[in-house]
Design brief:
mainly beta, 10-stranded antiparallel sheet, 6 helices, 444 residues, 34 strands
């Protein structure tokens, strides 16, 4: 609230105007940026708001999220809180494969509607990021299909001067429809890359077993080509999916139901499962392959395997968002992801104070007084409401607003002041005065 008062009414109106023009109207012709987030950032700079404390904090938070990203496995969901007085951005790192389709959804609850920027970046082995896609300016939802097998980073950041709770959910489904009627990926028997002909070649697809005559279906919208015969595949056909730059190969068909040049939609019948070509001695099945325009044969499994369904992580009570907690055990690890298998970022001693920024009922996403983020096990934390001990100051000391020797003093505490110690961080103690005021004092 204090920051909003300092900002002033005119500053608020200017930011509201900037938010309103992001991504539509005249702003799009002025800012040749590749995402609404970049357009919004540029509008702050053009209005000289990047020279204000709040504007600088917002821009820095967005950059910091690209380096301090946290690792998750999909499907995943967690809750969190963003404050008007303290700009927030969170980065989530995950593995993506060509053939995946991710749905990223951010739901917000607050007194005012909040624009949330969702940006997806590719992440190379050196940690360099490159923007891949972004949500539109008028929605907090993003559907996205990776084009390469690699690590990706999802950054979520709300606009300035908005407070509220949010829930982010990330789910994965196959990019394509399953190509055999009445079946799913549990009927796949032979996989991509297994040896064939005594090791002289590798299997360039997957085999889906089904009774002879079962319809083989178009798994994408496209145009049919290559309907004909060959030695290995027998009766074959291709569906060209120009949107994804792939050719989908159907082989061992008993017969065709399409012709060259025909346009098909998802679910149309391409032909019927059989065992023609070099599959004459095996049970009827569809050989299903995918060839990219640029790299040739690729593993079809991610394109059609069963999705993992909705995220089921138990949600953290919203009343705990923003609360301060402290470490119970002698040593507790802060990890890169919500799992005991995730890499440890640092180990904190008993009594260390952290702030809950989000998470689930099992794993809390926390922020240290220095701004570092990570996940800790919920069971390893406790509330700071009950003091660790009572102390009386031996000498006069400043009460600081953060655990930092350069932090701003809130007040000056006289020698003999009675304080309740709520927790520690490094060489500082979080204390509470008899009047309820809290702050940090040097423990030395």
């Amino acid at each position: 609230m204090a920051l909003m008062k300092i900002a002033g009414y005119g500053f608020v109106l200017l930011l509201v105007g900037l938010a309103a023009c992001t991504g539509i109207g005249p702003a799009t012709s002025l800012f040749k940026s590749s995402s609404p987030h970049e357009q919004y950032s540029q509008s702050l700079k053009d209005a000289k708001l990047d020279q204000t404390a709040l504007g600088t904090d917002w821009l820095q938070a967005g950059e910091r999220a690209l380096g301090d990203s946290l690792t998750i496995t999909v499907p995943y969901r967690e809750s969190g809180y963003f404050s008007a007085s303290k700009p927030l951005a969170t980065g989530y790192k995950l593995k993506g494969e060509r053939g995946d389709r991710f749905l990223i959804k951010v739901e917000t609850v607050g007194t005012q509607a909040a624009q949330v920027f969702i940006d997806v970046f590719s992440l190379d082995e050196q940690g360099k990021t490159s923007l891949v896609t972004a949500s539109k300016a008028d929605t907090n939802v993003l559907n996205w299909e990776p084009r390469r097998n690699q690590s990706y980073l999802i950054r979520v950041q709300p606009e300035l001067l908005r407070s509220g709770q949010y829930t982010i959910s990330i789910t994965r489904e196959p990019a394509l429809s399953f190509p055999v009627q009445g079946k799913d990926s549990r009927q796949i028997s032979s996989y991509f890359g297994v040896p064939r002909d005594g090791g002289r070649r590798k299997h360039e697809g997957i085999d889906i077993f089904a009774p002879k005559g079962t319809p083989a279906l178009a798994s994408a919208n496209g145009i049919v080509s290559g309907v004909g015969l060959n030695r290995l595949g027998g009766n074959v056909a291709f569906v060209n999916d120009a949107e994804r730059r792939i050719r989908i190969y159907y082989a061992h068909l008993d017969s065709w139901h399409v012709k060259d040049g025909q346009r098909v939609a998802v679910g149309d019948t391409i032909g019927f499962v059989g065992n023609t070509g070099n599959a004459r001695t095996t049970a009827p099945h569809l050989h299903y392959g995918i060839y990219t325009y640029d790299e040739g044969a690729t593993n079809p499994l991610p394109f059609i395997r069963l999705g993992r369904g909705p995220a089921k992580q138990p949600m953290l009570a919203t009343s705990r968002l923003g609360d301060s907690v402290r470490v119970i055990d002698a040593r507790t690890a802060v990890r890169t992801g919500p799992s005991s298998e995730a890499r440890s970022l640092q180990t904190l001693p008993k009594g260390t104070v952290l702030t809950i920024a989000g998470g689930t009922d099992f794993w809390l996403r926390v922020v240290t007084p220095t701004g570092a983020t990570g996940y800790v096990a919920n069971k390893a934390m406790e509330s700071i409401r009950r003091p660790l001990r009572q102390v009386a100051l031996a000498t006069q000391k400043p009460l600081l607003d953060n655990a930092d020797p350069t932090a701003a003093p809130v007040s000056l505490l006289a020698a003999g002041s009675q304080l309740a110690v709520l927790g520690v961080f490094g060489a500082f103690e979080l204390v509470r005065q008899a009047n309820g005021t809290t702050g940090w004092v040097s423990a030395q």
